[in-house]
Amino acid sequence: MNITIIGAGNMARGIATRALAGGHTVHITAKDPAKASQLAEELRAQPAGAAVRAGDDSAVDTADIVVLAVPYTAAKELAAAYGARLSGRTLVDISNPVDASLDALLVAPGTSAAEEIARASAPGTHVVKAFNTTFATTLVAGRVDDTPLDVFIAGDDEAAREQVAELVASGGLHAVDVGALKHARELEGFQLLHMALQIRDGGYGWASTIKLITP
Amino acid sequence: MNITIIGAGNMARGIATRALAGGHTVHITAKDPAKASQLAEELRAQPAGAAVRAGDDSAVDTADIVVLAVPYTAAKELAAAYGARLSGRTLVDISNPVDASLDALLVAPGTSAAEEIARASAPGTHVVKAFNTTFATTLVAGRVDDTPLDVFIAGDDEAAREQVAELVASGGLHAVDVGALKHARELEGFQLLHMALQIRDGGYGWASTIKLITP
Fold it and tell me: How far is it, in rounded angstroms, from Cα B39 to Cα A104?
């Protein structure tokens, strides 16, 4: 698949790493083109790194999946700004709308960042929530304590969810489909707790992952 | 500690099993006294099973921790009915306020079963959310795939949270303190997804557990 990642930060690095491992072509575009080029150059050192490109945002128009690897507010603005260019496309929201103290969500009760981004998007944009519970460094490794990461996926379009699940699985991770986009509420909520646990005394230092353990 | 469990169903069995393993005294009381006696008799076959008693609800008045091992609506009614008898005591709410289709929560956005139970309780009752993400059979075993269960704990009284964490740890489980009682919202929310995943095609059959994996 053609995966276009908007953003060139740590989460872009993590998701690009897994997408390359899965054999996909990755386009990176960012507000600061130098940052996008620098990340692409770094990723080229990886196995399958030849399939990464940096450039302008024209790759959005040929992407199978567009990933908004930016914070919530920027993601919502981008979804609105791209408008009809994203119609019919799978748009992945990875954001966590949390306050600076990591004690509360910035979105109102009864909604989620993913739903707000969907509301800001043009009709026919298939918004999928994914990768919001996986920290950047764990994505680069793909594993924590030798366990493949769970990636929880929510979205109203089943084919779009399946497409993201394919990206996840091809990159060596475990996809967990939780259904409709409204369930992004519960994914974002639990991740608030998970984030808060990173910075406490004896916290996990952004190195833990949420996993459903089965017998 | 003296642990009084109200209810004699599967969750009562699971929590009693861990409490006995932790060396605590367990009192079981239930609407149907025969059911309480039967569960106590069954538990007596366990190691440390000598420390279990069934009887009337007078054990509520001498308990260090009272566990409401009943569904949400019954738990709220019991909290209100016991009123001042629970004042100053640690009251554990384990409930999951989910609809029959496991697709939505029964409590309004911006609250939780635990907060509603606290509102129904007499002043000074220290309501703690715990054990809502651990299925009954996993509690009996204490582990899934040889991994000790995480038990997420939320409550506004720090000493009460620590008391529940002590119960959890003594029973061989891993306590994860997530802070204020309002964070029960996120625990109940994520458990809605976890429950829905049990009954799907290829579902986990009530045998999985939510774990934060660390390096």
Answer: 41
